[in-house]
Design goal:
This protein is an all-alpha fold and 631 residues long. Helix content is 76%, strand content 0%. Among the domains are: 115 residues, Actin-binding Protein, T-fimbrin, domain 1 (Orthogonal Bundle); 54 residues; 93 residues; 107 residues, no CATH class.
Length: 631
């Protein structure tokens, strides 16, 4: 049992129970440690069962009884089949404690399917600490704001919360031109110094990371579908996609280009854009000349009446160079100038709106005129063709007979040539048609083969992705196990435990073999006994029958018959006595084992602890009764 107790105590330490180093057996565990270990195991197996339980024994006896009873009920609900109660935790024997702890340790989660995979090292410790803190905060009851202590105010208050505000970050990238690498290597500021406020660094990192993950997932999805179907390398696929996007952006610009301009058919050309939409210097060759409001107002003003322009200049000059006058005249003049300027501004806006309408009407009229010109050109082309045909016919009219004969000969020769060409075409058409059908069959088979290979590529892609995920999971598990191995005490060798386990298994195997031999011997003895008993019964029956026949005639035989019956009865009593003796000896051995078990449980110490708890409980009851009387 010592090896079993060492393995059990090691498992309890891994579960988080603070077992002291000197404890090497279950008999060294105090009731406090037993309760702590049971609660921790219950929380690891069933958080809903172990969560409400306190791992520390309370000081009062009644609270201890309640906690021990709740623990016993939780163990029974978990599936413990033995006898368990409050005495199992407070006054338990070594055997019962070992059975209960072995049951709880066997229920602990062992693999990743029963417990979530935790990252190894410092990140795993940080996640466990965060989870414990969250559980602690969730277990804290809600308290109204006016009743909160400073600690609850920090936990449940909202004064320390801040809105989620992020900012763009410039992260280093691998590859690219050397200037960019030089910028990232020495000029670019660190990520923590880029946000204007230090508190925005975590939100910015979270948003940047989320954007990178989203981009990666979108690329994986697109490359797994249309990308593989295009049968192109990734770089060429991305280049064609960018080209299509630029061409789609070019379509609305082509619709707005001037009639005399010829838009390019390829990607966007900066020179053409400058010519089509006006240069930076305000050229007039653009299709959509844009300028400031001041430029448009000045352009309209130059086209106005010179007298109106002169009035505006005079008003502006008076505004810029007012004559010195009293304060009232200055206010009145300023009001009149403002009114004149507002009127001028309204008139100019009305003229601008009217000019916009005229421009739209002119554009519409120009479009209609262009459409009429195009239709007229089409009609003119058809009439020119008809006129050319009629002019040729008029030229042939003076010599109609000879021209008709020539035309007839030309028609016949054309017919013969058509027939000859049709025969030649049929001669060429047969091989070409067979070749076409053969090529089409090859194309269909190639398409089927490419589709099959495309499906295989997709399957391989999925398998590689799943293999990468599995490899990452196993690598994480390996790191976690390495970290746990490093955290284990170095003085304990795994080979020693393995050797001990093998020795225990060997001893168990030897015991099983001995038990098997004993069972075989017992079965042989039982068969021999049964055969002897049967033989005895048959011999007695035959002897009884023979003596009974002669007993009627001979007195000696009658006495021998009586002695035979008495001997048979005495032998039966002797056999029964031997069987009863064996049963009593087995009961004696069982009682001796029970006595040894009770003696190993230290009954005097348990009795003293029960008596002390009983006295403490009586004192508590007396104190409660006195308090009730005073109340």
């Amino acid at each position: 049992m010592e090896e079993v107790d060492k393995i059990l105590i090691h498992s309890l330490r891994q579960a988080g129970t603070p077992v002291p180093p000197h404890a090497q057996s279950v008999r060294d565990l105090s009731p406090e440690l037993v309760v702590d270990a049971a609660v921790r195991c219950l929380r690891a197996v069933r958080p809903d069962l172990g969560g409400p339980l306190n791992p520390l024994l309370p000081p009062t006896i009644s609270a201890r009884f309640r906690l021990a009873s709740d623990l016993a009920a939780a163990c029974q609900e978990l599936g413990f089949g033995g006898d368990v109660g409050y005495q199992t935790f407070l006054y338990s024997s070594e055997h019962d404690t070992r059975r209960l702890l072995l049951f709880l340790v066997e229920k602990l989660p062992r693999d990743e399917s029963e417990r979530g995979a935790e990252p190894p090292g410092k990140s795993g410790a940080l996640l466990r600490a965060i989870g414990a803190r969250i559980k602690e905060q969730l277990g804290t009851p809600w308290v109204p704001p006016v009743c909160r202590t400073p600690r609850l105010q920090r936990l449940q208050g909202s004064a320390h919360l801040q809105p989620f505000a992020s900012c763009p970050l410039v992260l280093p990238q691998s590859g690219g031109p050397p200037e960019l690498q030089e910028y990232f290597g020495g000029v670019a500021p660190p990520v923590s110094a880029q946000p204007p406020i230090f508190g925005r660094t975590p939100p910015a990192l979270l948003e940047t990371h989320a954007a990178q993950l989203s981009t990666h997932h979108e690329w994986e999805t697109e490359w797994g579908g249309p990308g593989l179907a295009s049968r192109l390398p990734p770089q060429e696929y991305v280049g064609r996609k960018r080209l299509r996007a630029r061409l789609r952006a070019l379509e609305p610009l082509r619709g707005l280009c001037p009639p005399h301009g010829t838009p390019p058919q390829g990607p966007l050309d900066p020179t053409w854009l400058q010519e089509a939409f006006g240069g930076a210097g305000g050229g007039t060759g653009g299709a959509l000349p844009k300028g400031s409001r001041f430029t448009r107002t000045q352009h309209l003003t130059h086209q106005q009446d010179p007298q109106i322009l002169l009035q505006q200049i005079q008003v502006a000059a008076e505004t810029l160079h007012p004559q010195k006058s009293p304060e009232e005249d200055a206010c009145a003049r300023q009001a009149s100038e403002e009114a004149a300027l507002e009127e001028t501004l309204a008139r100019l806006e009305a003229q601008i709106q009217r000019c916009h309408g005229e421009v739209r009407d002119a554009q519409l009229s120009l479009t209609q005129a262009e459409e009429e010109v195009r239709q007229g050109r089409l009609a003119l082309g058809g009439r020119q063709d008809a006129l050319r045909v009629k002019a040729r016919a008029v030229e042939l009219l003076p010599d109609a007979q000879s021209n008709m004969a020539k035309l007839q000969l030309l028609v016949e020769s054309s017919s013969r040539r058509i027939v000859n060409l049709a025969g030649q075409w049929e001669r060429h058409r047969g091989p070409l048609l067979a070749q076409f059908r053969h090529l089409r069959a090859l194309r269909d088979s190639a398409q089927l083969e490419s589709s099959r290979r495309l499906s295989e590529i997709r399957m391989l892609h999925e398998r590689s992705r799943s293999a990468a995920i599995e490899a990452q999971r196993k690598e994480t598990l390996h790191k976690q196990l390495v970290a746990e191995l490093e955290g284990l005490p170095q003085d304990v060798s795994r080979a020693v435990y393995t050797q001990r386990i093998l020795e225990i298994v060997g001893n168990i195997r030897k015991q099983k073999e001995e038990i098997g031999k004993i069972l075989v011997d017992t079965r042989g003895l039982q068969k021999e006994i049964n055969s002897l008993v049967g033989k005895l019964e048959r011999t007695f029956s035959v002897t009884d029958e023979l003596l009974f026949k002669d007993a009627k005639r001979d007195e000696v035989v009658r006495k021998a018959y009586k002695y035979l019956a008495a001997l048979h009865e005495n032998c039966a009593q002797l056999i029964q006595t031997i069987e009863d003796t064996g049963t009593i000896q087995r009961e004696i051995r069982d009682l001796e084992e029970q006595i040894e078990g009770e003696m190993s449980a230290k009954p005097p110490a348990s009795l003293e602890r029960i008596l002390s708890d009983c006295r403490a409980l009586r004192e508590e009851n007396a104190a409660l009764a006195a308090r009730a009387r005073h109340a």
